[in-house]
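Box 3.1 — From sequence to structure: Putative translation initiation factor-3
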Amino acid sequence: MNIFAKVVRSGFLRQPGTVRLIPPEVVSFAQLSSKSAKPPASDALAAPKKPKVAPKITLIALDQSLSIMNLDEAQRISKRRDLKLVKIIDLEMKTQRPVYKLMTSAEYLNEDLKRREEKKRTKAEATIKGDKLLTLSARITEHDLNSKIQNVVKWLRKSYEVRIVISGDGDKAKQESVATRIEQNTKEAGKIVQKRFRDNDLRFQIIPGTPSGTEREQEQPGSPTKTKQNAPVDNVNQSVRAFHTDARLLA
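Predicted structure (token representation):
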């Protein structure tokens, strides 16, 4: 019978260098244990992944009819009909599906303009500190009207929305005249919105706003910035005139 010999150095042995004989059955069991510790099979043998399916959406057609289909199919329809496919709702709570709408180019432009106006209005409202109420009569004197307009401009410059009520005795022409004076003298600081008549009163709001950069430069014609911008232009014009003068002399 074959016997596998192994030298074991242990402190428990009474004599150093003692040889211990280990049966082959123990060795074969250790080899089997090491083989069983191999890593699992490779990912190549794993089950194949299922192909991705386009999500279901709710589509609103031009005639406002609703249909449920895949997003890929809706994109093909929009290309075939030369329409715009626009997402209206990211995820509808009831159906748990996104909502898309088919639009013509004109409808898409109108919706885009509405979204931009809404964004501007929301941004303007976010910067408004509060509102001020100004009530005056259509028979107000010139001096008092100028004083009221100065107060309105101060409020607008401080980012306050001004609500104005012009009371009258039925003469809408006088009320319109006062409103026009206010609009002309506050257009650099704000914008009039929601102008309407109610109960013989002319009501409107003025939303604060700042002049554009071009208007600010025009308000300061003697500023150093504008002088620096105009200086190179004057030098160029002088060089051009000198060139034409020399050309005439040579001729």
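Summary of the box: Strands lie at 4-7, 19-22, 56-60, 66-70, 84-89, 99-103, 130-137, 160-167, 190-198, 201-208.
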